[in-house]
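From the pipeline queue, job 12 of 40. The input is one protein chain; the requested action is below.

Action: predict structure.
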Amino acid sequence: MESIIQQLGHLDIFPVFTHSLSAIAQPFVHSFQSVAPSFLPSMKSLISSEPGLVGGMIFVLLSYSFLVLVQNSKKARVVVTNKKPSPIYREGFPSGQNN
């Protein structure tokens, strides 16, 4: 019995994915390559003159990203009980007034 990965490997959809991803990413790579040389000298001077500033910005960005991922991974809890709701909460509902 073949594994799922081996079965998926026999499909011809992977070349489609690799071609489409490269077709999507290629314009971004070319634009970055054309813009990067103009900013590279200023980035080198910034990093060499203020390494703590750049390192602190990277640290804050990574910490914030980690915290956002942790907060988004928490799932909402639903508590199910057999208790009847308080009459205060049933006042606004028509069925609560009949009891």
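Job complete. The mean pLDDT is 78.
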